[in-house]
Design a protein that fits this description.
The complex is a heterotrimer of chains A (about 170), B (about 775) and C (about 230).
Chain A (H helix, E strand, L loop, with lengths): L1 H10 L4 E2 H11 L8 H13 L3 E4 L10 E4 L1 H12 L9 H13 L4 H25 L2 H26 L1 H8 L2
Antiparallel strand pairs in A: 1-3, 2-3
Helix pairs in contact in A: 1-2, 1-3, 1-4, 1-5, 2-3, 5-6, 5-7, 6-7
Chain B lengths: L1 H16 L1 H41 L15 E10 L2 E10 L18 E4 L1 H8 L13 E5 L13 E4 L9 E3 L14 H25 L4 H13 L4 H37 L15 H23 L2 E4 L2 E4 L9 H13 L2 H4 L5 H30 L7 H12 L2 H31 L11 E6 L3 H13 L3 E10 L2 E2 L10 E5 L2 H7 L10 E4 L12 E3 L7 E3 L5 E2 L7 H5 L4 E5 L11 E10 L6 H12 L4 E4 L6 H36 L1 H9 L4 H37 L8 H29 L9
Parallel strand pairs in B: 2-5, 3-4, 12-17, 13-16
Antiparallel strand pairs in B: 1-2, 1-6, 3-5, 7-8, 9-18, 9-19, 10-12, 10-18, 11-14, 13-17, 14-15
Chain C lengths: L6 E10 L2 E11 L4 E5 L6 H8 L7 E6 L2 E2 L5 H10 L1 E4 L11 H11 L4 H14 L15 H13 L5 E5 L7 H18 L2 E5 L3 H4 L4 E6 L2 E4 L5
The chains are: A mainly alpha (about 170), B alpha+beta (about 775), C alpha/beta (about 230).
Keywords (chain B): Cell membrane, Membrane, Transmembrane, Transmembrane helix
Subcellular location (chain B): Cell membrane
Membrane topology (chain B): Multi-pass membrane protein
Chain lengths: ~170, ~775, ~230
């Protein structure tokens, strides 16, 4: 669902054409995997159906000339998404990064995103720690593996938090 | 060689570029070395001061046996000895015999009878409120001041009084003032010994202090050296860098010392008693001694640094202390003081003034006192390992000392050496005092006496009248010395006698006469003199018209305690006669001694009486009976000793303070942690104080023991009665302990600052 | 949380010179809970801990411990409180190097006036509880970092405090040692019912806590309480 939230977040900056949206997305988040046009338009169609975006038609408009704008419901959906921690699992970086950048773009508190996520990570880590204390060696090793991965994620989060100011200067136009 | 220079230079650069801690260390070393250098320069200036004083004293010296050229202008002169309060005032009577009579140095005009020139110090004293009882003692006609070239020092109390009452019989006739006093003033072995002990006692701690100062902040320095090792310096190189660093501090210290000396030289003259005072311009260090200081101080500091570095191994990753768990051994530490004792044997076997003996004694003293500094670390270590548990503060302090007593002991060894020396010095000064002081004289009836009254029978009455008229004088009794010659002639024989006459109360001052009524006659026979048999006939006027016979009722009496006869022994027999026993005889009076009773309620009664006596005859010597002796002369030496001791204690206090501050700094994090978990400040302060107090107590114990033994040796050397001055030793040790504890306490505010929670932050 | 918190900081302000260390920081610690204070370096978490423990005095704001206003207390009262009801563990350098480990643990009891013997006895019991009885007679310089921290933990708990403050207690240890110290520490604290305020930047250490508060730029964000 993150591509949809990303597009909504980008639209909070003002109405845009589909092509512009793809370009903005690729610039910010798509370094490795640029979005296909098809995915942009199918996502926008779904957002339109859910009432998160609306279309501003221009005179003499073809399908390429449609401009999309975010609705209030769309703004609320982004906010809710940002406030919701991701389920702690390995390799969350791209999602978390998207969230942080979007939070900054949309004027949300990026620190809050990080703190919320840390709380969620810690919840799982506490559970793993408890399980490890009571478990046998195999349990301990498995738990440790998970704990170290989760910690690595959190460290990356801390680093991101520390760089928020730099990032903000870089991201905000 | 260039490598050496480069490494030394690097050390110098590191010391001045080592950031704040580098500067602090440099400052501490410079301050320590500076204080030490100041003391050394002061010592180096003493010979110059003594020379200058001696030169000026020579220039006004009165050569009593001067041969006078016929027709040369001459002056008659006689000394005046007086005392005001406790200060000696020694002046001279001048009676010019022609207008171009010689003048003493510093006096620019001839004095008419009654005219007086004063030393500036005496002038100030007379003008001050303090001098009230002195006014008028030698008249009021002050016509000028004595210039500095006529004074030994600015504080000297002296004067020249013009007179016309001198005769060649009662005075010296001079053609010129001044004469080299030559060997007349050569110091006795006792005084040489005193001076030697004094120098060693005062200067040895300076050496110890300087070598302690070099180690200020050495922990931080070692860490810097470790960092150098990390970037590739080898062990020899770090030693040279360390030497360079110390050298920078030592050179800075030399400069600081010179500066401090310049300040001290302005005030030093006023710190010593007036009769030992000197002019600032005389306070110039002897050049070759200065050279020695400039050369030896930096060399010593570098050597000490290198020796200290042998105790640690500076590795690239940090500093390892070698001391570790290794216990200190006693035997080699005892070798040094034992050698000192061996060298000091002339003290017991016989003292002479030869240079060899002096060198032996100085070397012996240095070794013995250094031995104190060597034995102390062992003593402290051995003791603290046997100390049992106590309160928390005590445990913290003892455990700290058990783990590392070296730091604490280094600070204390200077104190121990000083106190050992001072105790010895006090022992000898006290013993000399005991040798001469007169504490047993009877002062119940009369409290003062006027000696050397050159008078005839008529004047005795005048003296009695004048003295009685002085405020504060309640009674005057006179003892007249009579011219007594054996009737058969031959005054100077085994049957020579002294015949003195006075009322019973006065005779009681001279001998233990017991029950006495007018008409009694007593005879006092000192050891070695023969008692004149009853019936011996004398003539009492040198002519023959006053014959007198020793009556059969003559009783024998022991001399009064504290009289010259008791002190010195010998001398001819004395016949003491009450006036009734001389009824009908008109003896010729040779001299008079007046005994004076003073009103204790009148302040300054003694000095008012002295003034009255001087107005009758300035040459008469008026003094308190009690203080008759040289105890007052030793007072001056005591005061110099006191000034030296105070300077030494200041030095010790300063080094102690630095030491405490350094130890606290080193442990700031631990102290902050202790405060964080609720340790009472009281407990922490007590622990810091105990950490200092335990080694200090042990040091003082060792010092008092060594010093007392040394004092006994010195007392044997000067043939004084063996005595142990508990009060003096207690005072010295107590004051030293107090100085240490006070300076440590002065470091405690820093403890509060260091223990603020900021200290918890990791660096 | 239904019960009153044991230790509350309200709107603490503190600056060192021109640096703002605490800027309206508030936090609450409940009896028996383990609270992790997290946050980047220099965020003020250690400063907050020092304020909570009554070591530092805030410029403004209030710290209340068991209903008593710490900020209004005299320094000696706060010291007495730290001796009796609060415990402290630091990252390193907290053991008195001259004393043996056993004497170090006994020290807080003796500061409270306990007789030497009794203090040493209960210190020995605590060393055993933290599995370091074998270092009792050694000096801190002679034991490993992990052993030293366990001794420090034993010392912080020996007075049976109601709150133990731990500032990066495993900061100087490797994972295995750090983990063991945390296991023993938290278990022992829970056993005695002591609350723990734990300053750490390591998530695996914070995972021993019941919940965490994040300190950032001198402010505290208390995260939702999860048990």
């Amino acid at each position: 669902m993150s591509v949809g939230h990303a597009l909504l977040g980008l639209l909070e900056g003002g109405p845009r054409h589909g092509y512009d949206l793809k370009r903005s997305y690729d610039e910010r988040f798509g370094a490795d995997r640029p979005l296909a046009y098809g995915q942009v338009y199918s996502t926008l169609a779904r957002l339109l159906k859910n009432g998160f975006v609306e279309v501003e038609s221009e005179p003499g408009a073809g399908p390429e000339r449609k401009r999309y704008a975010v609705t209030d419901a769309g703004v609320a959906d982004v906010a809710a998404w940002l406030a919701q921690p991701e389920k702690p699992e390995p390799y969350l970086q791209s999602t978390l990064y998207t969230k942080v950048v979007l939070a900054l773009l949309t004027g949300h508190d990026a620190d809050a995103v990080l703190d919320t996520q840390r709380a969620e990570h810690l919840r799982l880590m506490r559970e793993l720690t408890r399980r490890k204390d009571g478990g046998d060696l195999a349990d301990q090793l498995v738990c440790d593996h998970a704990l170290f991965h989760l910690e690595a994620d959190l460290r990356w989060l801390e680093l991101t938090a520390a760089r928020v100011q730099q990032l903000a200067a870089h991201v905000r136009p | 060689m260039t490598r050496w220079a480069a490494d030394l230079a690097l050390g110098v650069r590191l010391s001045v570029g080592g950031g704040r801690s580098g500067w602090v260390r440099l400052g501490l070393i410079a301050a320590g070395v500076g204080l030490g250098v100041t003391m050394l320069l002061v010592a180096a200036a003493l010979p110059a001061v003594l020379d200058a004083r001696a030169d000026r004293a020579d220039a006004r010296w009165v050569e009593t046996q001067q041969t006078v050229d016929a027709g040369a202008p001459t002056v008659l002169t006689a000394p005046v000895r007086s005392v005001y309060h406790d200060a000696a005032v020694e002046g001279r009577l001048l009676q010019p015999e022609s207008p171009d009579a010689p003048l003493p140095p510093g006096v620019d005009r001839q004095l008419a009878p009654g005219e007086i020139v004063l030393s500036p110090a005496l002038d100030r004293l007379l003008a001050s409120n303090d001098g009230a009882a002195l006014r008028g003692r030698w008249g009021e006609e002050v016509v000028g001041l004595i210039a500095p070239e006529g004074l030994t020092g600015p504080g000297e109390l002296t004067f020249y009084l013009g007179t016309d009452e001198l005769t060649p019989d009662t005075a010296d006739r001079l053609q010129t003032f001044g004469a080299p006093r030559g060997d007349a003033e050569a110091m006795s072995p006792v005084l040489v010994l005193l001076a030697l002990v004094g120098m060693v006692v005062l200067l040895l701690p300076v050496g110890i202090f300087v070598s302690t100062a070099v180690r200020f902040g050495s922990e931080g320095r070692d860490r810097r050296l470790a960092a150098l090792r990390l970037v590739g310096a080898d062990a020899a190189m770090t030693r040279r860098v360390a030497a360079g660093e110390t050298l920078a501090g030592a050179v800075l210290g030399l400069g600081l010392g010179a500066l401090l000396f310049a300040l001290v030289s302005r005030v030093a003259g006023s710190l010593v008693p007036g009769n030992l005072s000197f002019y600032p311009q005389d306070f110039r260090p002897v050049p070759w001694l200065v050279g020695l200081v400039v050369l030896l101080v930096p060399v010593t500091t570098v050597l000490v640094t290198l020796a200290a570095l042998r105790q640690v191994v500076v590795e690239p990753l940090g500093v390892v202390r070698r001391s570790g768990e290794r216990r200190r051994r006693l035997w080699w530490r005892l070798v040094v003081p034992a050698a000192g004792v061996v060298l000091l044997h002339p003290l017991v076997t016989g003292l002479d003034a030869s240079a060899g003996t002096q060198v032996m004694i100085v070397a012996g003293l240095v070794l013995l006192l250094t031995g104190v500094a060597l034995v102390l670390p062992w003593l402290v270590e051995a003791t603290v390992h046997r100390l049992g548990p106590g309160g928390v503060a005590w445990d913290l302090a003892v455990r700290r000392l058990q783990l590392d007593s070296g730091t604490a002991v280094r600070a204390v060894s200077g104190i121990a050496v000083s106190v050992a020396g001072l105790v010895a010095l006090q022992g000898i000064v006290g013993a000399i005092g005991a040798l001469t002081a007169e504490t047993t004289a009877d002062t119940t009836t009369y409290q003062a006496s006027v000696l050397d009254i050159d008078a005839d029978a008529d004047e005795v009455a005048a003296w009695t009248r004048e003295l009685s008229a002085a405020r504060g004088v309640t009674d005057v009794g006179t003892l007249t010395s009579l011219a007594a010659e054996p009737a058969g002639g031959g005054a100077l024989g085994p049957d020579e006698v002294i015949l003195e006459s006075g009322p019973c109360a006065v005779l009681a001052q001279e001998a233990q006469v017991g029950a006495c009524t007018d008409g009694d006659v007593f005879v006092v026979v000192p050891d070695g003199a023969a008692a004149p048999p009853a019936g011996s006939a004398y003539v009492l006027d040198g002519g023959g018209s006053a014959p007198w016979t020793l009556p059969a009722s003559t009783r024998s009496a022991d001399p009064a305690p504290g009289t010259v006869a008791v002190m010195d022994g010998g001398g001819p027999a004395r016949i003491l006669v009450t006036p009734g026993a001389l009824a009908g005889v008109r003896p010729e009076v040779m001299a008079v001694t007046a005994y004076v009773a003073l009103d204790p309620a009148v302040p300054d009664a003694l000095d008012l009486m002295r003034t009255a006596a001087a107005q009758v005859d300035p040459r008469a010597y008026a003094a308190s009976i009690e203080a008759r002796g040289i105890a007052t002369a030793l007072g001056g030496i005591r005061q110099v000793l006191l000034v030296g001791t105070v300077a030494l204690l200041v030095l010790i206090g300063a080094s102690m303070l630095v030491n405490v501050v350094e130890q606290l700094r080193e442990r700031r994090r631990l102290l902050a942690v202790l405060v964080a978990f609720g340790t009472r400040r009281r407990t922490l302060s007590a622990s810091v104080l105990l950490q200092v107090a335990v080694p200090v107590a042990l040091g003082l114990l060792l010092a008092v023991a060594t010093g007392s033994v040394l004092a006994l040796g010195l007392q044997v050397a000067v043939e004084a009665p063996l005595s142990f001055d508990w009060a003096g030793v207690g005072t010295t040790a107590g004051v030293a302990a107090l100085v240490v504890l006070l300076t440590t306490a002065a470091g405690l505010p820093l403890l509060w600052r260091l223990t603020r929670p900021e200290g918890l932050r990791s660096e | 949380m239904a019960t009153e918190p044991l230790l509350v900081a309200e709107n603490l302000h503190l600056r060192f010179g021109t640096t703002v260390a605490l800027d309206s920081a508030s936090v609450a610690v409940h009896a028996g809970e383990v609270l992790a204070l997290m946050g980047p370096s220099g965020s003020g978490k250690s400063t907050l801990l020092h304020c909570l423990a009554g070591i530092l005095h805030p410029d403004a704001g209030r710290v209340t411990y068991a209903g008593r206003d710490l900020t209004a207390m005299h320094d000696s009262e706060r010291s007495a409180l730290r001796r009796t009801e609060l415990g402290l563990v630091f990252q390193f350098g907290q053991l008195v190097p001259e004393l043996t480990c056993l004497e170090n643990v006994a020290l807080p009891l003796r500061l409270n006036g306990a007789p030497r013997r009794a203090a040493l006895r209960s210190a020995a019991a605590w060393l055993e509880r933290l599995e370091v009885s074998d270092v009792a007679g050694k000096r801190p310089g002679q034991v490993s970092g992990g052993q030293g921290q366990r001794v420090a933990v034993a010392r912080s708990l020996v007075t049976r405090p109601r709150v133990v403050f731990a500032d990066e207690p495993t900061g100087a240890l490797d994972s295995l040692n750090g983990e063991r110290v945390m296991q023993l520490f938290v278990a022992a604290a829970r056993e005695t019912g002591a609350a723990v305020v734990l300053v750490t930047h390591e998530a695996r250490v914070a995972a021993y806590s019941d919940h965490e508060a994040v300190v950032r730029d001198g402010r505290v964000r208390t995260m939702e309480h999860v048990r």
